[in-house]
Specification:
single chain; about 70 residues; alpha+beta; two-stranded antiparallel sheet; 3 helices; 2 strands; about 10% strand
């Protein structure tokens, strides 16, 4: 699912991550840590029209809740 996202004026990285990945906690940091996005940290929170954000494949968010089936 890795893709490039082209920003509109005023887009915010945390909102983009939440929309794409379905969760914000940890995804924004993971996107910023990717080598293709090193310059974005200087531009946040508001990105400019035309800015490119690389959105790498990230695992789904772990909820910490495990489901146990009592009756099989």
């Amino acid at each position: 699912m890795a893709l490039w996202y082209t920003c509109s004026d005023g887009d915010q990285l945390d909102a983009i991550c939440k929309e794409i990945y379905g969760y914000g906690r940890g995804s924004t940091e993971a996107v910023l840590s990717h080598e293709s996005n090193r310059e974005l940290a200087k531009k946040t929170p508001d990105l400019e029209a035309g800015d490119q954000v690389y959105l790498p494949d990230l695992p789904p968010q772990e909820t910490g809740v495990k489901t146990v089936n009592l009756w099989d």
